[in-house]
Amino acid sequence: MVKIMLKRLLPIFLLIGLLLLTACGRVATTPSENTSGTVTDAIIPETSTISTATPETSTVTPSPDSTAIPSSPAAADNADTNSPASKSTSGITSKPTNSPKPSAPSQSPKQKTTSTPAPSVTSTPSAAQTPSSTPAPAYEIIGQDYLNGVLAGINERRTALGLPPANFDSALCSECLTQAIKMAEAGYDFHSTNPTGCEGVAKVPYNMPAESMGGVMCSHVADFTYAATTKIGVGVVKSNDYLFVVVQGLS
After folding, report:
1. The pLDDT of residue 182 is above 70
2. In whole angstroms, what is the distance from residue 2 CA to residue 14 CA?
3. Model confidence over 60-119: pLDDT tens digits?
4. Measuring CA to CA, how many Å separate 144 from each of 150, 164, 179?
5. How far apart are CA 152 and CA 167, in angstroms?
6. Is 85 helix (H, G, I), strand (E, B) or coil?
7. Are 149 and 210 a contacting pair, CB within 8 Å?
């Protein structure tokens, strides 16, 4: 900016210098008396004070609706420099004064919300049922009705032969039931080691009628139809859709 102003003021300074040189060339004769009384011409040059004009610096803010009028030639030159027209002719771009940017409003710190987790609900498992110490047997003891039918089938054969009917013996029935359970656990039929009386064993389908079972036993064991045989024991156990039957006769 200063360089531009000096370039514009240089012709003015040169003109002032020429004027000063012209003024200095003119000699003004002023009579003066010396000690001898002789009047001599004293050449007193005209002195002039040259003041360097300080260019006035004015800040021109261009607006779209108004045109700034410079107060002095220097200011006019400065205004021409800042105007868009001077930029296009001289090719010199002046750096605009950076106005302070408004400070961004301070943001209040966001409150950090802490979510409290919901308490977990732990269900207490119910007490497990204690299994019975004795496991359920893999067989089923057949009731008295079926035993009565087996005895009826035996006495029917005895009656046909003209023999008196036989009766149940509790000891024999208990022994027969023990052997029937052993057969059910083993899955097949077999005789007792030391039976008390004559013995018949069988493994038949579970739906075999009781009377028919008594007749089958008489066919296999002839002693059941002897006159001397008066006591009968019967034991029946069901397992896996089969009947395990044990019959003993005692005189």
Report:
1. yes
2. 18
3. 444 444 444 444 444 444 444 444 444 444 444 444 445 555 555 555 555 555 566 665
4. 10, 22, 17
5. 10
6. helix
7. yes
Calpha distance 89→93 (Å, rounded): 10
Question: Phi and psi for 199 in degrees, rounded to 5?
Answer: -135, 140
The mean of the pLDDT values for the chain is: 73
Question: Rg of the Cα trace of the chain?
Answer: 74
3-state secondary structure of 249: strand
pLDDT band at 23; cut points 50, 70, 90: confident
Distance (Å, rounded) from C-alpha 212 to C-alpha 243? Answer: 13
Q: Is the pLDDT of residue 152 over 70?
A: yes
The amino acid that residue 141 corresponds to is: I
DSSP line for 184-243? HHHTS----SS-SSEEEEEEEETT--HHHHHHHHHHH-GGGGSTT--EEEEEEEEETTEE
Taking the C-alpha atoms of residue 85 and residue 71, their distance in angstroms, rounded to an integer, is 19
- Between 178 and 69, residue with greater pLDDT: 178
CA nearest to 197, candidates 128, 249, 234: 249
Q: Where are the alpha helices (DSSP H) in the chain?
A: 2-25, 73-82, 84-90, 144-160, 170-186, 210-220
Q: Where are the strands (E) in 37-141, listed by range?
A: 39-43, 140-141
For 184-223, write each residue's pLDDT tens digit: 999 999 999 999 999 999 999 999 999 999 999 999 999 9
HSE-up of residue 87 (Cα within 13 Å, Cβ side): 7
pLDDT of residue 111: 56
